[in-house]
Design brief:
Length: 531
């Protein structure tokens, strides 16, 4: 019960010292990671927004420069707008199809077209005039801006839905221009969108993109890529911004390879996996510490039990020796047969004490690494017979029937005879201790393949499966059932196991609770070397 309380206390301490900080650290890191990745994503997104803004600004400045040049052409040394020569202007700006100049009332109109637009100039001028008349509110806004000293450029999509004129996608940019007091004109520029994108915008996009970004101009209504620096679809773009002067088009940008969101997620998950890995290490460390602490506590308990059991084991034979010795000393025993019986009991108890002390001394030598074995040619039957001759009286005195079956022509082995005898005595002693009413012990020798063996089989209480591997550990004793009521040091089987390992052999165990156990010591026939 005390051990369980101590284990619970250890678990609680480990949870407080290791697991709780690990849980809090993980929660904090996950929250920080999520916040940090969101912040990084937002900063990166804003930087890309700045790039798109600068592109829009560049387009605006470019168009404004063309407008200023056109304004200079209209007013420098010209008294009548119909005398304007725009051939050089059209050659320099191939994306401009038509220039429409009228008075502010849209009555006195002059239309100038490049070579591609000359054939449909009249039809275009009619459509443009209708477009302006339909958007008088925009013209009024331009007049208001102009009155305040601002030159505002507005854009309108050239609608040819009727299909009366076969032209490509166009955009109309119009503004009010003025020189002097009375020279106010409405100017409209019809631009070929695709030509403008490929000749004006594309070089700037390629310059900005470099090796880092995928960037392009797209028509979101048709999911069409007008231009991009590499093969990319509009649906693959996450960061977009409308073109100020081309409202049907958008600028789109993303990083090469993975998107910003994917990069942020990858960084988040990489950090998350690292945190989880550290948590696993901490948890495994806690488990390792717990297992070691539990093992040390169990070992300490077993040592305590060992001291208690050894004390009892020493006290019992000493008490018997003292009692019978005092009886003999006082001369109270008159019959010779009775005195001989007391002498035998004293002799048996001294042998019992000797075995116990030898086990403790051997264990001490093993623990300190000083235990030595003296190997020599040995016949296993001879060794077994010596033990039987020495130990049979003790076995019979305990009421046991010892049945011996020694195999003939048994091959010799290299072994330490004293150590083998000690191992056999420990097995016989265990068979006596852990047998109930059915007091029969079978002792056999034999050989198979390249091994010889001896085995001790009893019909006692048996061993549970979960205890079979543990019983060979030092100080270990089964703590339940009838085993718990039988005193012992917990060293016997540990010594047997060490002896067999030193001889290059092994212990085989067959056992069934309630039906007995069979311990088999297997030795290789080939020559063994001392360890």
């Amino acid at each position: 019960m005390n051990e369980k309380k101590r284990l619970k206390r250890v678990i609680l301490i480990l949870i407080i010292i290791i697991l709780l900080p690990a849980i809090f650290y993980t929660a904090f890191e996950l929250n920080s990671l999520s916040h940090n990745e969101q912040m990084i994503y937002e900063i990166y997104r804003q930087q890309l927004d700045v790039i798109l803004f600068s592109l829009n600004q560049y387009i605006w400045d470019y168009v404004n420069g063309r407008v200023s040049k056109l304004e200079d052409i209209i007013y420098i040394d010209k008294s009548d707008i119909q005398d304007i020569d725009l051939r050089e202007f059209f050659n320099e700006n191939r994306s401009i199809t038509l220039v429409f100049i009228s008075d502010s009332l849209i009555q006195n109109i002059h239309v100038y077209a490049n070579q591609n637009g000359n054939n449909i100039k009249n039809q275009l001028s009619v459509k443009l005039q209708s477009l302006f008349l339909a958007n008088k509110n925009l013209i009024q806004r331009l007049q208001q801006f102009r009155a305040k000293g601002y030159k505002k450029i507005e854009s309108l999509v050239f609608d040819d839905s009727e299909g009366s004129i076969s032209i490509d996608e166009k955009m109309v940019l119009f503004y009010l221009t003025q020189r002097g007091v009375n020279s106010v004109h409405l100017v409209a520029i019809l631009i070929d969108n695709r030509t403008f994108v490929t000749e004006v915008i594309a070089p700037k996009l390629a310059e900005i993109a470099g090796e880092q970004f995928l960037i392009g101009v797209f028509n979101p209504q048709t999911d069409e890529t007008i231009y991009s620096n590499t093969s990319i679809k509009y649906r693959d773009i996450k960061q977009i911004k409308k073109l100020w002067l081309f409202p049907d088009y958008v600028l789109g940008i993303r990083t090469r390879g993975k998107s910003i969101e994917e990069l942020a997620q990858d960084r988040f998950y990489s950090s998350l996996y690292l945190v989880i890995f550290l948590d696993i290490i901490l948890i495994l460390g806690a488990i390792f510490v717990f297992r070691n602490i539990r093992r040390e506590m169990q070992l300490a308990q077993m040592k305590s039990d060992f001291v208690s059991n050894v004390s009892h084991e020493l006290r019992t034979p000493l008490a018997l020796i003292r009692m019978f010795a005092e009886t003999l000393e006082l001369g109270r025993v008159r019959k010779d047969s009775k005195r001989m019986e007391y002498y035998r009991i004293i002799n048996q108890e001294t042998e019992r004490l000797t075995r116990l002390i030898n086990n403790i001394l051997n264990f001490s030598r093993i623990e300190s690494g000083k235990k030595e074995y003296h190997f020599q040619a040995l016949n296993l039957n001879t060794c077994v017979q010596k033990v039987i001759d020495m130990y049979s009286f003790h076995i019979q005195n305990k009421g046991f029937d010892l049945r011996v079956d020694l195999s003939k022509n048994l091959p010799g082995i290299q072994a330490d005879g004293e150590a083998i005898s000690e191992a056999l005595i420990n097995l016989l002693d265990n068979a006596i201790k852990y047998s109930n009413e059915n007091k029969v012990i079978h002792l056999r020798t034999g050989h198979y393949q390249s091994n010889v063996f001896m085995e001790v089989e009893d019909q006692g209480i048996g061993i549970n499966e979960q205890d079979r591997k543990l019983i060979f550990e030092k100080f270990y004793r089964v703590s339940t059932g009838e085993v718990h009521n039988t005193k012992g040091s917990g060293l016997g089987l540990s010594l047997v196991n060490h002896i067999m390992q030193s001889h290059g052999g092994k212990i085989e165990l067959e056992s069934e609770p309630g039906k007995g156990s069979c311990f088999r010591l297997v030795f290789p026939i080939q020559e063994n070397k001392a360890m």
